[in-house]
UniProtKB/TrEMBL annotation:
<keyword id="KW-0732">Signal</keyword>
<feature type="domain" description="PepSY">
    <location>
        <begin position="7"/>
        <end position="86"/>
    </location>
</feature>
<dbReference type="Pfam" id="PF13670">
    <property type="entry name" value="PepSY_2"/>
</dbReference>
<protein>
    <recommendedName>
        <fullName>PepSY domain-containing protein</fullName>
    </recommendedName>
</protein>
<dbReference type="InterPro" id="IPR025711">
    <property type="entry name" value="PepSY"/>
</dbReference>
<feature type="signal peptide">
    <location>
        <begin position="1"/>
        <end position="21"/>
    </location>
</feature>
Amino acid sequence: MQLRYALAIAALALSPVAAYASPNCTTESSDNWMSKQDMKTKIEELGYKIKTFEVTGNCYEIYGWTSDDKRAEVYFNPVTGDVVEAEIDG
């Protein structure tokens, strides 16, 4: 019985982390998304240097650097190209 409670508490404690893992970037169908190449071009125009580019949930996401060489993890709306969430080091 105690193990069941411990597992339930652990699941509750971890659930906010999983929910925060990637933001909700759009509700639009992927048919309406900017092409990956167009999005990469827009990201570079915004001043980011891309190390990796991927689709995460309903977002385009990069790991890379800002124009002033700070490490960055950035989520973009795949329809508009707007930044939805960014974590910039330093």
